[in-house]
Structure formats: structure tokens, C-alpha cells
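Forum: Protein Structure Q&A
Topic: Joint prediction for protein chains with partners

I've read a bunch of threads here and the consensus seems to be that you should model interacting components together rather than docking separate models afterwards. I'd like to see that in practice. Below is the full input, 850 residues plus whatever partners are listed. Could one of the regulars post the assembled result?
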Amino acid sequence: MSANQKNPVLVIVQLSGGNDFMNTVVPYTAGIYYDSRPVVGLKEDEVLPIHDTLAWNPHCAALQAMYDEGDVAVVQGIGYPNSDRSHFRAMDIWHTCEPIEIGAEGWVGRVIRELDPRGQNVLTGVSVGKGLPRAMAVPGVPVTSFDNLDNYGLLTGIEDERQRTEALEIFKGMYNAGVGTGIVMEYLSQTGLNVIQGTDELKKAKAGYRSTVEYADNAIATSLRDVARVHLAGLGTRVFYTQHGGYDNHANEVPDHPRLLSDLTGAISAFFQDLRAHNASSEVTMLVFTEFGRRIRDNASGTDHGSGGGAFLIGDRVKGGLYAEYPSLDPARWVHGEDLEHMIDFRGIYGTVLEQWMGLDPTDIVGGQFEQIHPYQTTA
Amino acid sequence: MADDDLGLMAHLLRRAGFGASRQELEAYAQQGYDQVVEDLVEPERCPPLDEDILQRYFGGEGPEIRVGTWIYRMINSRRPLEEKMALFWHHVFATGYSKGEHALAMNNQIDMFRRVGMSDMREILLELSKDPAMIYWLDNNENRKGEPNENYGRELLELFSMGVGNYTEDDIKNCARAFTGWTFAQPVPLYPHGFYAPQFVFHAEDHDDGEKTFLGQTGPFNGDDIIDIIVAQPATAGFISRHLYNFFVADEPQVPSWNGSPPQDPAAIAILSHAYMESEGSMPHILRTLFSSDFFKAARFQKVKSPTELITGVLKLVGAYRTPTPGMPHYARAAKVMGQELLNPPTVEGWHTGPEWIDGGMLTERINFAVNEVGDATKPGIQTIIQRLQAEGDSLAPEHFVDKCLDLVGPLTVTESTRDYLVRFAQSGGDLVFDPNGSANGAANGASDSTDRVVLMLQLIVAAREYQFA
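Posted by a regular:
Agreed with the consensus. Here's the joint model:
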């Protein structure tokens, strides 16, 4: 976005397993909601009203506060035609933007290639979590991936710090001698050196970080704190990716889902407080998404895989509010007689962020042109 | 047996199996190369694993448990090539857990690859076409007379036998028609009974028994007639030969580009294709030809190890999990973070291999995995290495120390520059001197300085670039 002085940054948070959108932003005055969800339905007097038909889950209080300040855009009914109920396939579709063919390239990887075509900064794209998400995988596009900043690095199995430092020096020497060893060996050598370079840079993120903001002790808070540490170190990262798992609440949704939402929203709130305290929040947009919503009716313990989920765009420059339309609760409009409709295509939301925030042409990245929303303030 | 022969034997076992412990390697070398090849290509000469024991120790439903058990099989099977061929067919006939989410059906598919993977191409394609996991993966259960679903018919030709450019769209349509009615039954419902094995069934009422023209031949073909025609095609011989070359000999470009780019070694593909044609696609004959060939013997370290090969090779080196022990699912997860989630390849095209196994994150996982595993001096394989080093003398000069470690880890061939750095590292500690009080027991008796130094040297060797190659 041209109004942005610093380079715009995108932080993607993937909620894995299929977050129950109906129990996140709740149609709390609709009789059919209570009829359909005798077990997992939230009570009218416990939710946090947004207006006279929708309310926040009470465990989203931290996000509600940000929403009330105008920093949260809720994208209602996000999805795509013929939603796939397999987690893996559905997640693949979100990762590759290919709902019909099976795609090989991740959309975030394509974004990183646009931002850094010659792969000059191995930290342009950073994934925090176990394994690289498909979304970031494009052959030849270097990205950095770590699970936990505090124990990230090469040769971490060598415990003695002095020995490890000495071994890393030898490692650098061995990998430096790539020329003339053949194309694959040279590529492997360069990749090894990139890792070392990335690790060295990331050390700065560890060393330089000071904050008075307290993050909770849970997985998503730890991951978002790592994102904050890398962002605050100013290493040129433009896209962060992290994941929060456990949303596949077929059973025991009543005890499990509230904890997930309070961990998540608490972590998001701490993350933005941390960035604001360092005057480093205005360049950041966070996109929170999940692979699908869940079935309208509960199964007497949880909810099964459905469609019509929800996403959030969060940030200082975001114009808070509700976007697209809440899917109809009229049973005549239920998909397969049991699912919420999708109201807006996820590729249009990717496109919104890419075009209106990152200043990129989304057409090739998301595979076409899709309806966008307008969630950004037009003047800074 | 000469050292060089040991290197060749190690090469054979890395490719035709999953590596070997030092003792295994030396026992194989005693038998001689040709004899070992015979035992590999005729797996029934060696005893199978005891299925009862596997069942007792590794029972369980989920895909990680199943993959963990498979990795256990890889490192313990006395029929390493049978297990390697099961992995080969899993690469080629890539079926994913992700769609059906039925781990038992996936497991049964791998069992089938183990059972018929070393028979002949006709048997293999016939069993594949009747495999419930495959049928569901490529929608052949939706393939009915009058409303054919072409998914399986197309991939059977494009990815599983001939490769693009060797048939027409009409051939695909008629191939699909021949497989109408080939489906599976799920006799026991999932809810509330859990996962039971689906079984192949042929529904005659859904089968289109009309005339079909396929690759120039016409008749009321059924699926098995189609397979008869496919397996006799020279295109099938060439395509499967290139797959075998890519998996066992040296990395080729990714499969989708094969139609446009010729093989790197056309003569080798011609030799393998000839072996295919003269034996009607008999795997033992083709594999014997392959492993006995000069092009195979010359291809040491010409392939990037797949994550599965890296993990199993390291486990063989350290001598871990040689009896049923809990913890195998850890290795299923390790392979996944390195980019190879077994039983769940990303697409029907399978994994992209060779250099595409390597990116920054995956290389970090690979190196750290190997470094962690060899870091435990109590493991039997590391103990063996320490004992063998000690047998060289009470005091080893740095170059001797490095060369012996490279030998015991592989034998591993490294560039001069890598060796120089390893020697430099060894020199910083001076000669390797063994404690006269018997530090061969290493960490078991409290870590000694020499044990530490050996372990560190091994960690640097498995972190070297060369170790990433098979």
C-alpha cells in the first residue's frame, strides 16, 4: 500500500483442523442456531454482542476489544465452490489456490518470488512451526523455516556450545567449496550456506529483543512471539506464516474450542501490543484463516466438517467491521442440506491483501481475478 | 575382500535396500556381489519378518503408527529389495491417505506392493487396479457403464505404465470403459465399527462390455485385457525402465518432463527396456540386469537420498531399533518434516525427488536428524565404530582418524576439500588417544575424551554434503 512508509508485512495464521465459525462469530438471536446446536450452542447471555444478530464467542474477548477499536475485519462465509471436506485436500486448495487440479506451487511461495525474485534475502519468507507449509513451497524459492527461535539452528545436537561453534566453522568451510562439484552439489552447498546465513541473522532477533509485553505460555503465543522477535529485528521479512492446531472438534467441542479461541485471541492481542510498544505495528496486516467451517448441526459432542468458514484481517490500518455477508441460516439455502454457504471466495481475500496491502498484482498468484473487499483505510 | 569391494557392496545395499550396519556389510561382502544380487532379486530365499511379532508390538490404527512400522520393516527385513520395491511402487503409484483417510486401506496397499511388487508388470497392474485404496483415490468407484469416470483410466496410462505421448484421448476413454464396474465394497460400516478392510468387487451390471478400440486393437475388452495390451507395449518397457533408473541408479528430471527431455543415459534405459521385453516385464530379471550393470556400479553417490533413505540409513548406522521397541512413529514424523510423508504423497504424481528434496528447512531437518542420532555413543553402531577405531591402535594421527571414520560411516567418498576440513577439525584435538582403561565402552562408562571426539567427528561427517547422497 502506497500509504505505508515501511515495507508492508503480512502475517498469516493458519487455524488447522477447521475452526467452527458459527461458534466464533455467533448468530446468537437465531432460533435455528439453538435448535441445531443443543450441545455446543453458546447461550444468549454469555456471548459478547456485536449487534442485534451476531456476537463474539466469550473466549474471543481479547479480539473483541481489538474489534471495538476498529482493527479487525471479519470476513464472513469465506470459502470456495464445492468445498472439499477432507482436511488435507481442503488445506491444499487454500495453499495452492487450485480447487480443481492438484497444484504444486504454494501461493505464499509465489508471493515471496514476486517480492524477492533473485532470492537475495533468505528471510523474505519465514515459517514458524514444524515443517514447511505447502503454501510456501515453490521450487527454487528460498524460505526459512523454524519451529522455535530459541533452539533453531544447525548442528543443534552438539550440546557443548564451544564444540558446536567450532563444528559450525568446519561446516561453513565444507559447504563453501561448492564450485566445480556438479550442479546438484553446488545447489546443496548454496542451500546449506543460506541456512547458516539465515541462522546468523536470526541470532540478532534473539539477542536484540526486549519487551515488557507478556505472552501466555501456549503454542500459538510462543509462535507469535517468535514472529514478533523476527519482525522487530528488521531483517527484511515480508511474509510470516504460522499455524495453530487442534480445531478439528468432532468431539468434546465444549471444553476444547473455548481454550483454543482464548489462546489464539490472547496471543494475537499480545502480538499487536508488542509491535505497538516498539512502534512497529502500522506496517503489519495479519490474516487468520482455516480450511473450512463446521456443520450447522452438532453431533451431540462436537461438529463435523462443513464449509462456509470465517477469516480475519487484523492491523492498525484495517478498517474494522463485518465484511461479505453472514451465510444464510435459512435451511432452504443450506448446502447439502447441512452446511453454511460460502459467500466470498478465499482467493478474493488473498487478492485483497496482495493488491491493497502488499501492492502486488494478485492475478497470477491466486490464479485469476476474484471479488475483493475494501478493508483498508484509504488514508494513513 | 578389498576395501573397494566393500564400497561397492555399501552402494548396492543403499540402493537395493536401506543401508547396512558394518557387520551386515561385511557379511554380505563375504558372500560376494553376484550372490548378494541373487538373494536380493529372489527375496523368498531369505526369511520374512515375523508378522505376529510386528502385530503384537506395533498394533494400532493411525497412519503414523503404520508408517513407523513400515520404517521398522525397512531397517530389519532380511529381504531389503522386496521392501525397497514396495517403496518404489508407492512412489510410482502414489496414493494418498489424505482423500480416503483410511489408514488400513493404505496399509493393505503397501502390503500388496510387498506381495506382488517383485512379480511381473501384468500381475502388478492387475492387483493395482483391484486395490481399494487406489480405486477410491482415483474415483474408479464412480466409473460406471454409460457414465465413465476417466480418472483411473487416464493415470493408468499416463503415470502408471506408458507415459504421455504414447496413446490418444480415445484410448483413455476406452481404457476407462474397460474398467467400469471395478470397485470395492465396504462390508462393515465405519460408524460405529471402526475401520475394516474394503474389498475389491466387480459389478457386472455397471460394466460396459461393448466393443472398444484400444491402442489399435478392438474387442469387448475388460480391464485385464487392457492390462495385457499395456504391458506388451515398448512404451511401457521404456517408461518403467526410466522409473527404475531414476529410483535405483541416478536422479532424472521430474516425471512430468520426461516426454520432452530424453534420459541422461539412453543406453542404460535401452538395456533395461530390453530386459523388460525379453522377460515380459519380470521384475527379478530387470532388477538383476540393473544391479549387475556397469552403469549401476558406476553411479555411486549420484542420487540425493530421499528422506526415507536418509532416516533408515542413519538408523542402520547407529544400530537402533533392531528389535521391536516403542518409538517408531517418531521417524514417521521425521520423514514428514523432511518432506516425505509416507502413505500420503502430495499428489498422484508422487514426490518430486532428487534436488527437490532439498530446501533450507528440509536440509536443516536432515542434517540435525543425522547429527542427533549419531550423537548417542551408547548406540551399538557407534560402539562398533569406536571399537574398530581402537583396533587401529592406541593413538591415531588426525588423517588416519578421519579416513577410518569415513570408511566406517560408508565407506563414504568425499571431496578433497571436505576431507581437508575434517582433518583440520581432527588436528585441533591432536592425535586421537584411547584411554588405556578401556574407553571402548564409551559413554556407558562415563564419557571419555576419545569417545566425545569420535562422536563429534561422526556428527560432522553426517553433516557433510556428501552424506546427503546415496
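Chain A has ten helices and twelve strands.
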